[in-house]
Design goal:
about 25% strand; single chain; five-stranded antiparallel sheet; six-stranded mixed sheet; alpha/beta; 10 helices
Length: about 300
Amino acid sequence: MIHRLLVPGLLEAPPGGAAPRFPILERVIARADEEPASGGLEQLLMRLFGLESRQGAAPFCYLADTGREPGTGVLRAHPVHLRADRDQVLLFPLDDSSLTMDEAQGLASRFNAHFSAHGLAMEVVAPHRWYLLTERLPETPFAALDQVAGRGLRSCLPGVDGDGFWLSVLNEIQMLFFDAPVNRNREETGRPPVNGLWLDGGGKLPSRPLSGPGKVQGDHCLLRGLSASTGKDNGEAVTVMTGIAGALRQRNPSAWLQSMLALEAWLKAMIGKEEIVLYSCDGRGWHWKPSCNRRLWRLSRPLPWT
């Protein structure tokens, strides 16, 4: 069985500066066969379940979060803070702890009251997990949130739709949220207002069950949604470890170290008996077979940030 391990943030510098060596991870990277693996975490997961790159992640995440098939098109709606900077507007995702469920539902209700006549319906399943249900999906997919974070909003928008509908929706959301009571209260308490949404992952569920890994591990909504949509086991296994990426976002050295040690323990238990493909979700992959252990001439080297 091939076991595919996806670890976003694997080779990024740790948040605390100096870090210990991880000998088993170093050995895998040194002795395995390196192979290209284009795309980030979501694109890789889609391919592992036999889906085209244009298939959006949102309907699978919705299925995982709600236990229901959307029955229509769906996009993820990420609450964001937009900040003017000279001649551009910068987009910043909100920290996971900075939005309450009451605030999210208040803004979503304001959205629905305004946009229901346009066939748009917002559903909030968690403070930072909103879904926009609509039959009218963008002609060209929006870039993923992690690709636009910290960037100028204007540079992320060209080509989204031909008639300007979705650009006008994004602009109207900014005006709609500007004077919302939720945002007035947030500003009074020194918190950034939720003055925009970023939409991504748009699509519909496929009409047929997927063929994909029958054994999955990891608490990622896309992985859970894809697994729930799988009808045929292709004989592979997939594990997703998001702890390292989460610790990097939070700049938490302790959480980063614990996640790295968990990865090291996982590899130690597997490399003697399993065929593994390790993905760093930044374009690189390493294909390990137990026979790679005999490549003694391939010397382990410190990771880029050690």
